[in-house]
Amino acid sequence: MHAETIQRLADRIRLNVGQVIVGKEAIVDKLIIAIIASGHVLLEDVPGTGKTLLAKAVARSIDGIFKRIQFTPDLLPSDLSGIHYYNQKLSEFEFRPGPIFANIVLADEINRATPRTQSSLLECMEERQISIDGTTHQLAKPFLVIATQNPVEQQGTFPLPEAQLDRFLFKIQMGYPSTDEGLHILQRFMAANPLEQLGPVVSGAELEAAQREYTAVQVREELLRYVLAIVEATRSHEDAALGVSPRGSQALLRASQVHAALQGRDYVLPDDIKALAVPVLAHRIVVRSSQRLKKDASISIVESVLRQVPVPADSPLVSK
User: Is Hydrolase set as a keyword in this record (predicted)?
Assistant: First the structure.
C-alpha cells in the first residue's frame, strides 16, 4: 500500500464522516491518524459538542463495532473487561466479554472513574490485550479508545495520572461550531439523523494493511534528530517539571508518518512534525506548580520549543 492509497482511504472516511459531522476536518484527520498509527485519543471538551456522534460516525465508516462506556465512580474493572459466570445449563463457567471488546470504545467522562478502573485500561491501550483471571485475551483490530473529559466541571472527578495520559496519541478539543456551521447542523438534523443512513466505506482488511504499511513512509535522519531535539527541549524547559517521555517521541514520529501519507507523500517533512507536536506532546508535560493556574501552560511550552529548536535543512531521504 503506497502513500496515495492511504490518502484515498482517509479521503473516503473523511467524506463519509462529513455527512454527519459539520466541519471539524482537522479533528477527523487526527482520529484517522490515530486509527492507522494504532493510537488513542483524549477529547477534552464540554458536553454537547458532538464527541459521541463523531465516534459513532467513524466506527460506522470503518465497519467497526462501537461501544460506549459511561465512566462513574462505582464502575469496576470487570465492568470493562467482562466476567466469568456459571452457565447452569452447561454446568461450566463461561466468559462474558465486556464492552472493551470492540473496535472503537468511547470512554465517556473517563476522569469520573476511580484510579483503579482507569488503570485497567493501560494494558488494553498499550498492548491491545487484556488479562482476565490469568488468561490473556487479544482485542479487536483496529482498536481505538476515544476518552472524553469535561474541562470545566471538576467536582467528583479523578485526574488522569501521567502514565494514563502518556498512552494517548492525541489530546484535542472539539470546540464550538461557528455560526455558519451551527446553522448547517440545524438544517442537517432538522428532518432526520444522518447517522442512521451512514454505511461503511473502508474494510477492516484495508485498515490493517494501512497500519502495516504507513511505516514505509521515509524519514531523514535529520528529522529523527529534530523530533528528539523537540522532546529533549521539553525536559529542560524552565516551566516544565516533567518533560516528554521516549514514548512521546515515538508517538510524534508515527503520527508524522501517517500525516505525510494523508497528504499523499511517502516522506516526512518538518511541517508534518510541527503540525502535530502540540496535540501529541502537550498533554505529556507536567508543568511546574507556579504555572498550573495558567491556561494551556503545557501548550505554551511546546510552542516555545518549536520556535527555539532549529528546523533541519533539506538532505537525502533515509528509511526509518
Answer: yes
